[in-house]
Amino acid sequence: MSGASVKLYSTQTDWINQTNQLGNTLISDSVGQVDYYTTLTPAVNYYWLVQKGGLSNQNNVITNTTAIIPNSINSFNTVISK
User: Fold this and answer.
1) CA contacts within 13 A on the Cβ side of 59
2) In a domain? residue 13
3) Of 10, 19, 22, 46, which is the most buried if we count CB atoms within 10 A?
4) Tally of structural domains, the chain
5) In the chain, helix, strand, coil percent, each to 5?
6) How many other C-beta atoms can be found within 10 angstroms of the C-beta atom of residue 55?
7) What separation, in Å, do the N-terminal and C-terminal C-alpha atoms of the chain show?
């Protein structure tokens, strides 16, 4: 979904409460993709919050299935719903 906001959190508690966001909010491109690049993030799993127009991925059980790898472009897929 294009134009969705994407936020990154280091813990599930922060993801649920939407507190302590890591970095800036990203916006998905015309095909619904966000590429995340960093040199500082350790290669561990993180929690992504994707939102647009009342839809989000917070109803999904898993949002952090892949680790973010430093010094490379990281792409992820997620499903958003009510």
Assistant:
1) 8
2) yes
3) 46
4) 1
5) 5, 35, 60
6) 15
7) 14
| Backbone phi and psi for residue 16, each to the nearest 5 degrees, phi listed first | -65, -45
Residue positions counted in the chain:
82
Cα torsion 50, 23, 26, 45: sign: negative
Which residue has 């989000």 as its token pair?
Answer: 56
- Beta strands, E only, the chain: 5-9, 22-27, 35-37, 47-52, 55-56, 73-75
Q: Select from 58, 2, 4, 54 the least CA-distant residue to 26.
A: 4
pLDDT in tens, 9-67: 888 889 889 999 888 888 888 877 777 666 655 666 777 788 888 888 877 655 555 67
Range of the domain at 59: 5-75
Q: For residue 80, tell me if it sits in a domain.
A: no
- Helix (H/G/I), strand (E/B), else coil: 29: coil
Strand partners, 22: 8
